Amino acid sequence: MIIEARNVSKSYTHKQALENINFTIEGPKIIGFLGHNGAGKTTFLNMLAGLFSATEGEICVNGENVFNAPHVLSEICFVAESGNFQDEMTVAQSLKANSFFYPKWDEDFAKELLQVFALNPKDKVKSLSKGMVSALGIITGFASHAAITIFDEPYIGLDAAGRNTFYDLLIEQQAENPRLFLLSTHLIDEASALFEEILILHEGKLLLQKDADEWPQHVVAVKGSPNHVEQAIEGFEVIYKQSFMHEMTAVLFTNGKEIEAENITIGSVSLQDMLVYLSKKKKVGSTR
Amino acid sequence: MNVLKGSFYVFFQSYKKQNIIFWCILFSIVFLSFFLDSFFGKYISFAITISIPVYIFYSTMASKILNRTMPYFLKLGLSRIQYVLHLGLFFLAWSIAGAFIIACTHEIITFFSELLDVKDIIIIHPVLLFDTTQPFMLIVALDFVLLLFCLISGLLLNVVFYRLGTIGGYSFIGILALIPIVMVIFEWYTPLFEVLSKASVFSILSSLLLMTFLIYSVITGALRKASAIPA
């Protein structure tokens, strides 16, 4: 499965949500689709699932535009933050409804997962807690066996045990039945080890697309005296810079280039920290 | 075909409860009216209407169906055209079911009135405008067309609010409210009434069906690129 975003832009009445996004992702793979609040992740994922049309550009799966293309969309299972089920239907009815729409629906697996997440098939969706609805979404995502499975904040309200079950299932499914999983989450520390590729959106633009293995060589933190750090980071794209006492820390993209300078220390930056820095940068930018 | 079955399954399950509650209340009222009439009919005449509450119920249900179901179906991978097609087919099935229930209830009430010798019970139905003998198939045909028209009209209202937002929706209602005012000003109501009173039931039904089809075409066009989030 190949997902291509070609010059994708999306604007609302008072806001530009996405601006000229271009990238290609190829599965099977587990992809971390990251960014701070308002970065445009959910907008993009909604467009990939055919829920919105792009203002400009197009999103294609295997070369075909997804918008209003049912034969392409039947290969995509989108588990959104909310609104995945009809309130009046029971858990069993919701799963039965899914079986009509996903060609590779695995009913036995869905039943097995109902027991794993301790859901009562007779309960109505409207009577479920937030975590239980999330669990039902997770069951839908895995049992659909869709070639592209999108999880947008799939575990809101789920406890740590539930989230661990989700991560275990993700690894197990990727080993047994490989597909393209797109996972958007804010609990990055928990999930970062699962990602094989990372896409970061920032203020509606694609900031970075890297294989998870390449990450430590591309984003680094440089520490040292302000003079030395300033010298070292010259020519690099700086994400965040902070001075405290007589020490400066700069987080930068190196794009694999080596930093040649003395009296500095170079450290790695975790995904979680990177998003915190991006968020700080955004706040500084917006207050200026 | 599987997707169509799935759509019908979802529509049916989503509206099952409302339908059961509505018909239970309606039948209770009808039963109570019939019961009162059989005891007090000598002193006071009772009139029962089944069809009119059903028209109102169907219009109300259809005026909310888009917000409730379209985002859900789009998430399941349906295209907008598929959604409108499946919804249209569901409306057809729903109207036929409603029309049969209304006609059968008429028959049952008539049967029991004759059996219990309750003669002065009146069942109000639009068919009385055309045929006082109230033939079964004519009631079914008339109710089918009227129910379908109510459903499509309700859906049109929902589409207007969905696409144009609250201001656009209420403006549309305002424009609709102007029609009777314009009719009174230009005295169009007299020729209209004359045309309607002279027209046969079949010409009225076919005109209504044609209008329903036209509204449905407009709805299909309006939803072709609709977002999953209302305006």
From TrEMBL, chain A:
Read off the Pfam families from this record.
ABC_tran (PF00005)
Q: Does the keyword Nucleotide-binding apply?
A: yes
InterPro entries assigned to the protein according to its UniProt record, in alphabetical order: AAA+_ATPase, ABC_transporter-like_ATP-bd, ABC_Transporter_VariousFunc, P-loop_NTPase
Source domain of life is Bacteria
Record domain ABC transporter: where:
3-228
Query: Membrane-spanning residues where?
Result: none
CDD domains xrefs: ABC_DR_subfamily_A
**Keywords per UniProt:** ATP-binding, Nucleotide-binding, Transport
Stated name of the protein? ABC transporter domain-containing protein
Gene source species = Lysinibacillus contaminans
Which classification does the entry list for the species? Bacteria, Bacillati, Bacillota, Bacilli, Bacillales
UniProtKB/TrEMBL annotation, chain B:
Write down the superkingdom of origin. Answer: Bacteria
Q: Which residues cross the membrane?
A: 20-37, 43-62, 83-109, 136-160, 167-189, 201-223
Q: Which UniProt keywords apply?
A: Membrane, Transmembrane, Transmembrane helix
Q: Answer yes or no on keyword Transmembrane helix.
A: yes
Q: From the Swiss-Prot or TrEMBL record, give the protein name.
A: ABC transporter permease
